[in-house]
């Protein structure tokens, strides 16, 4: 079962210059909430930004990772 | 409109339903997307959502009093499988407007709060500021039954 820390690490490793803040939503290790900031999202629609993150996990989304709630930004919000 | 650099360039934008007669479920999904201006694929029904994320998406549409059709993906696991293959989107719910995937719960909620959802749907934005209505129309996505 993935941990929030592992999900953060994988997102940051896969997406250029990404900073991810990941919470285990329920403490159960299968519902996560992530805010991901990366300049790689610039110029992409929200759908495409989220697809980039979902792609890091492939088939795990909907499997071991039941839900990954996403918020994506190109620059950190104040 | 920008394109994802990692998508294979050869992928056709619209897989024609008639090219896959051996796949009636995918054809039915494509047909439903085509025929309904606003279509939500969800777990459960608008009256009885079976998942907090679906409930939250329904709440955003209902707060805008936007008419929408809904498909429950739960009765047959192949619906979800074929839908995700078609839309290149891994999770449920999925909201389609005029044949285009708008997003799942996160994007729809964000767009509701920013007023973009009302624009896309061609309805009046809510009168009160989104931050004031959020608590009423967007309940926390996870009910107690989902924590077990």
Overview of this structure, please?
The complex is a heterodimer of chains A (78) and B (148). With 78 residues, chain A is α+β, with helices and mostly antiparallel strands. Chain A has a single domain, classed as BolA-like (GMP Synthetase, Chain A, domain 3, 2-Layer Sandwich). Helix content of chain A is 29%, strand content 26%. Chain A has 2 helices and 3 strands, in the order H-E-E-H-E. Chain A has a 3-stranded mixed β-sheet with strand order 1-2-3. The radius of gyration of chain A is 12 Å and the shape is globular. With 148 residues, chain B is of the alpha+beta class. Chain B has a single domain (22-140), classed as Glutaredoxin (3-Layer(aba) Sandwich). In chain B, helix 1 (24-35) crosses helix 3. Chain B is globular. Classes of the chains: A alpha+beta (78), B alpha+beta (148).
CATH class of chain B: Alpha Beta
Please name the CATH topology of chain B: Glutaredoxin
Task: List how many beta strands of chain B DSSP finds.
Answer: 4
The CA-CA distance between the termini of chain A, in Å, is 32 Å
Examine the secondary-structure arrangement and name the CATH architecture of chain B: 3-Layer(aba) Sandwich
The backbone outline of chain B, from C-alpha atoms, is: globular
- One letter per element, helices H and strands E, the order of chain A comes to HEEHE
The number of helical runs of chain B is 6
- Report the largest inter-chain contact: A-B, 22 and 25 residues
| Unreliable segments of 5+ consecutive residues of chain B | 129-148
CATH superfamily of chain A: BolA-like
SSE order and pairing:
The complex is a heterodimer of chains A (78) and B (148).
Chain A: H1 4-14, E1 19-24, E2 31-37, H2 46-57, E3 67-73
Chain B: H1 24-35, E1 38-42, H2 52-63, E2 69-72, H3 77-87, E3 94-97, E4 100-103, H4 105-114, H5 116-121, H6 130-137
Parallel strand pairs in B: 1-2
Antiparallel strand pairs in B: 1-3, 3-4
Helix pairs in contact in B: 1-3, 2-4
């Amino acid at each position: 079962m993935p941990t929030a820390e592992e999900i953060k690490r994988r997102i940051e490793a896969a997406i250029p210059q990404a900073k991810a803040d990941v919470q285990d939503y329920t403490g159960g290790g299968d519902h996560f909430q992530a805010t991901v900031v990366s300049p790689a999202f610039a110029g992409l629609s929200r759908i495409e930004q989220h697809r980039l993150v979902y792609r890091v996990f492939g088939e795990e989304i909907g499997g071991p990772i039941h839900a990954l709630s996403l918020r994506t930004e190109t620059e950190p919000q104040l | 409109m920008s394109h994802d650099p990692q998508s294979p360039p050869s992928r056709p934008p619209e897989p024609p339903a008639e090219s896959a007669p051996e796949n009636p479920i995918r054809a039915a999904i494509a047909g439903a997307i085509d025929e309904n201006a606003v279509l939500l694929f969800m777990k459960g029904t608008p009256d009885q959502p079976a998942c907090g994320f679906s409930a939250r998406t329904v709440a955003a549409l209902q707060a805008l009093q936007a008419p929408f059709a809904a498909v429950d993906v739960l009765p047959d696991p192949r619906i979800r499988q074929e839908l995700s293959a078609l839309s290149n989107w891994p999770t449920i719910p999925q909201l389609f407007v005029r044949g285009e995937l708008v997003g799942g719960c996160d994007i729809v909620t964000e767009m509701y709060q920013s007023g973009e959802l009302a624009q896309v749907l061609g309805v009046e934005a809510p009168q009160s500021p989104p931050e004031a209505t959020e608590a009423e129309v967007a309940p926390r996505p996870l009910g107690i039954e989902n924590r077990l």
